[in-house]
Design brief:
Length: 149
């Protein structure tokens, strides 16, 4: 797997919070392979950004994401949504995630209601968002490793 380190920033109420550095080699190869398949499937659709896939983690069945390339081989954006009814209707936008290989960064821009949606009683889905970000970025780097500088 490609050795690639990048920074993660969470943006809430227009305030950036540095979440530290992540290396793609810390992600299990099975997760990377799964995310590569999911991303490739999402990018094959004509209406990119409007098709959603589940995160693939047990316990995160109500979370899904889209994929929309911004710049070929570099930037891709995702919309992270909460699916309260498990039927694809009434999706609630939790945030937008921007992945950039050239800038070696991931930015998760939370919606104002994100904490209310992700934390309900004893259920806290925020950890799944972090797992999604590292799995997605590792897969995106692998898909584009031929174009790395």
């Amino acid at each position: 797997m490609t050795d690639f380190t990048y920074g993660v920033v969470m943006v809430e109420d227009d305030q950036p919070f540095d979440m530290g550095q992540v290396n793609t080699q810390d992600v299990p190869e099975e997760a990377v392979a799964t995310y590569i398949q999911i991303i490739e499937q999402l990018l094959k659709h004509d209406n990119q950004g409007k098709q959603y896939a589940g995160l693939g983690f047990e316990g995160a069945e109500k979370l899904a994401f889209s994929a929309l390339p911004v710049e070929e081989h570099d930037k891709i954006a995702t919309g992270l949504v909460y699916n309260p009814d498990n039927n694809g209707e009434n999706l609630v936008l939790v945030g937008r995630v921007f992945f950039s290989i050239k800038e070696r960064s991931v930015s998760f821009n939370m919606e104002t209601n994100a904490d209310d949606v992700l934390v309900q009683g004893d259920e806290d889905l925020r950890g799944f968002v972090q797992s999604f970000i590292v799995c997605f970025m590792a897969a995106w780097v692998e898909l584009n490793k031929a174009h790395l500088a």
